[in-house]
Specification:
alpha/beta; 12% strand; six-stranded mixed β-sheet
Length: 422
């Protein structure tokens, strides 16, 4: 009888572990089925659960002998600490690859929760100080006032200087100049054109100006289905294969705020006013809208679930905006497929349309008195893109020279000399 019912040590260990798990899942009353039987004089005797657990697992599981209380909070805290440590090491490893193996790693910083974590890590690793990672910021002229103020704060705190880019042809920080050139209501009239002018084009120009060969960014799988399959490294079809480094790709938003709290990382002041993510002031709202959930003094106030649920980080973004097909807007265009086509190639690169390379050449063609067709264009303009194929076909059979002249880089000239208004 003894030999039949004496369990091997390994199996007993497994049974004891199962008993502990069962206690957590079902409570002490439901665990008898998970307890290993032992030898006795009358054949089968069930050993007490507490004796199995306490002899082998009391220190590890925090199980009291009498009431079998499992210290869940302590275990969860320890598990989170282990997870954060691993995520931190993983993120730092990817940043090391990005900054040590590429000549010009650039971090476009939107100063949202994930981005401030990356800023903190780049500082800890010395990459902001030695310049191995440059920071760029896109000012849409529609940001919250707190955003650019916060940029100045973290520049001073971490000792770096960001390169700021905005709509082409407008001085940095000059909203009046933007309104005069593009119109204060461009976003109301054509949101896709607004995205191109104020976000995508400055973003791409910033990458090119910084000679970027590896772009660091804070996208995560947790942010939603559009990003659910991203990895820590990607090859984007920008500039012939620009590498993307997503150091926090596998983090949840809860991980991000846990990390901010652990290291007291400087973060956007609007988190304390109910905003889980921060974009343009015109279409960003608190979640919930009453502002009852906040992150204040490195702690959550109110129910944090509306912020931390899957794909909830950006629920307050792009509010009231829709794509042309009527679908809800969830991306500004910077990271979507095809964005690089607008700015990483010119229009009419091949075929019968001839390029006018300078204002002097344009004046010469105009002054020659000969018939010709000149298209004044911008490669980022959706209407210019839309006419590309048809204009190419026209040029092949027009019977007169057909030219292109890039007007967005010579706005004053084209308005004065080429019958074009911006």
């Amino acid at each position: 009888t003894s030999s039949l019912f004496t369990r091997p040590k390994k199996l007993t260990t497994m049974k004891a572990y199962a008993a502990a798990v069962a206690t957590v899942l079902f409570g002490a009353s439901a665990i008898s089925a998970f307890v290993a039987p032992t030898a006795s004089s009358n054949g089968i005797t069930t050993r007490s659960t507490s004796s199995i657990i306490n002899t082998q697992y009391s220190s590890a599981l925090g199980m009291a002998e009498d009431d079998k209380v499992f210290d869940q909070e302590a275990y969860i805290a320890e598990s989170k600490e282990m997870r954060l440590k691993y995520l931190e090491e993983q993120a730092m490893f990817s940043l090391k690859i990005a900054c040590e193996n590429y000549g010009n790693a650039v971090f476009p910083n939107a100063m949202i929760a994930g981005d401030v974590v990356i800023t903190h890590l780049l500082h800890r690793m010395g990459y902001l100080k030695d310049g191995k990672a440059k920071v760029m910021v896109v000012d849409t002229f529609h940001l919250f006032p707190e955003t650019m103020e916060f940029l100045r704060e973290i520049e001073e705190f971490y000792g770096f200087k960001a390169e700021v880019f905005c709509a082409e042809g407008v001085p940095v920080g000059d909203k009046a100049a933007y309104d005069a050139k593009y119109g204060a209501n461009l976003w109301k009239e054509d949101i896709e054109q607004y995205d191109k002018v104020c976000k995508v084009e400055p973003f791409q120009r910033g990458l090119k100006t910084c000679n970027t060969d590896c772009m660091i960014n804070g996208r995560t799988r947790w942010q939603g289905f559009e990003r659910a399959w991203i990895d820590q490294f990607e090859n984007a079809p920008i500039g012939g294969g620009l590498a993307k480094c997503n150091p926090i790709a596998y983090w949840t938003l809860e991980d991000t705020f846990d990390y901010i709290a652990k290291y007291e990382v400087p973060h956007h002041p609007l988190h304390a006013k109910g905003y889980p993510s921060i974009g343009d002031a015109k279409d960003t709202i608190p979640i919930p809208e009453d502002g009852s959930t906040k992150f204040v003094n490195f702690k959550f106030e109110g129910d944090k679930t509306p912020w931390l649920d899957y794909a909830s980080e950006r629920k307050g973004r792009f509010v009231g905006l829709a794509n042309k097909d009527g679908s809800t807007k969830t991306e500004c265009g910077i990271h979507v497929a095809g964005a690089e086509q607008t700015f990483d190639r010119d229009l009419w690169e091949e075929g019968a349309v001839k390029n006018i390379a300078s204002t002097d050449e344009a004046k010469e063609i105009i002054g020659s008195g000969k018939e010709a067709i000149v298209a004044v264009y911008a490669p980022w303009c959706q209407f210019c893109q839309g006419m590309e194929d048809e204009f190419s076909k026209y040029a092949e059979s027009a019977g007169v020279p057909v030219y292109k002249f890039r007007g967005d880089e010579e706005r004053d000239f084209v308005q004065a000399s080429l019958n074009t208004e911006s």
